């Protein structure tokens, strides 16, 4: 089944807020014992980018996918499919 505006059931659609993403990123990072610096090195982002994401100031899907790969969690934990 493909999703189109005609068959999207809006009552089941969810919006992931930047703050929810921020909390999930922080929780996943802490679960593997990484500091912000460790995660930045592992995923190839700079420390300030990780801090912005964890503060809910940035939810760039490309960056979130890199973080998910570094933490070995499904990208869907951070980026809605």
From TrEMBL:
Residues 25-78 form the HTH cro/C1-type domain. CDD domains: HTH_XRE. This is Transcriptional regulator with XRE-family HTH domain. It comes from Rhizobium mongolense. Gene3D superfamilies: lambda repressor-like DNA-binding domains (1.10.260.40). Pfam families: HTH_3. SUPFAM superfamilies: lambda repressor-like DNA-binding domains. GO terms for molecular function: DNA binding.
């Amino acid at each position: 089944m493909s999703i189109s505006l005609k068959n999207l059931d809006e009552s089941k659609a969810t919006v992931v807020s930047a703050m929810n993403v921020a909390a999930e990123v922080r929780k996943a990072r802490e679960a593997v014992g990484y500091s912000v610096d460790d995660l930045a090195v592992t995923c190839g982002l700079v420390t300030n980018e990780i801090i912005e994401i964890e503060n809910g100031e940035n939810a760039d899907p490309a960056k979130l996918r890199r973080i998910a790969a570094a933490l070995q969690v499904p990208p869907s934990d951070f980026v809605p499919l």
